[in-house]
Amino acid sequence: MVPLTTMIPSAVRPMADAIVPVGSDARLITAALLGFAVIILLITWLKVHPFLALTIGALGVGLGAGMAPAQALTSFTTGFGSTMGGVGVLIALGAMFGKLLADSGGADRVVDTLVARSSPRMLPWTMALVGAVIGLPMFFEIGLVLLIPVIILVARRSGLPLMKIAIPTLAGLSAMHGLVPPHPGPLIAIDALGANLGLTLAFGVIVAIPTIIVAGPLFSTFAARWAPVPVPAMFVTPEDDGVDAAQRPRPSFVAALSAILLPVVLMMVKALADIIAPDAEGTWKVVLDFIGTPAIALLITVIYGIFVLGAGGRMNRTTVAKSLESSLPPIAGILLIVGAGGAFKQVLIDTGIGEVITRAVLDSGISVLLLGWVVAVLVRVATGSATVATVTAAGLMTPVAATLAGPEVALLVLAIGAGSVFLSHVNDAGFWLVKQYLGTSLPQNFKTWTVLECLISVVGLAGVLLLDLVV
Q1: CA distance 25 to 28
Q2: Residue 331: predicted pLDDT
Q3: Carries keyword Transport (predicted)?
Q4: Cα gap 243→236, rounded to integer Å
């Protein structure tokens, strides 16, 4: 099988190589804890903008851990550039598509169909299913930028609290990210550990279903109480201003849905081609690899939307250009915050904090499945990256996996995947992406998004351990 590290963004590959800690274990852990505390205090107490707080915290952790000033700055700029070149491009393209979807009336068409065919009680369950389907082949950030217009408009039109709609959707996206192939995360662990793909997929679906139910529709009731935030004033359409939908041309439901699902299909086809014919060569494989790359898939989707959604909404060249142009200023702050979060993550990786934590856990002597989960959890908490946690934990557990039976290897993949999404906090770009899009405060984001990620991780582990008793 081709090395699946080619599917990992460059910003997260360094952890796969040996990292030499820049200071003593105690110094590294102290610097990381102080860095987290400084960032949280700057934002919550002094009301400093998150971009500035993350920048100060990242450089402070690097210097406190023992990095030379130039090395800390290089690590910061490398992480910022890699994140902006990867996630940043996806956010920008996703914002352009989302605005086009809203302005053309396509989002209204999808939302009206969902609201009309689902009772208020069933809407959270419907959105959980939507998040799971969209999130299957995608990195979390891509699915979020694609679905944020739908989340916001469904909440606005249905009258339900924002968290009753957002949390189930996010649960579907995140659970797929960690548990179910052909998502890149599980595929990485499958390749490293030599697990059976079909068995892992079957077990992954079995574990993911109750996990999404608990972390999504069930938890959303509590999240709505803990974070009663208003629906953000984004993606406002004429229908929201009282214009009758019948008086406004809109794309058909099929056209709007095809635009939303197009990047899903493109990435899914590429993932399946990598699984079915990993060593294949030829023009068709080159083409699939190219169009299935996240940035290219979203670029194709934007172009597709210009013609299909624009035509359905009877938008001319001027209105299409205005829609695309107006999509970028509102996300400028989000881009900077996400970039700074990626920079902070890179500093933590380069200091060797993740390596220190991993060594300590490997000497603990706990069970194999729990050990894989704990290693992934600690690397995730230390670095803020689910993919880095998966790569690291899978690499460390490879010798152990060689001694296990097929079903246990598949379960080890899922245990690592569950651990890789645990406790999203200030060093995770996704944390800031969710916060800014949903308009929550920092404490509210901890009580909703962070708790959701912990639920997915813990319930996922419980499902894995129960399956282990059965198989």
Answers
A1: 5
A2: 77
A3: yes
A4: 12
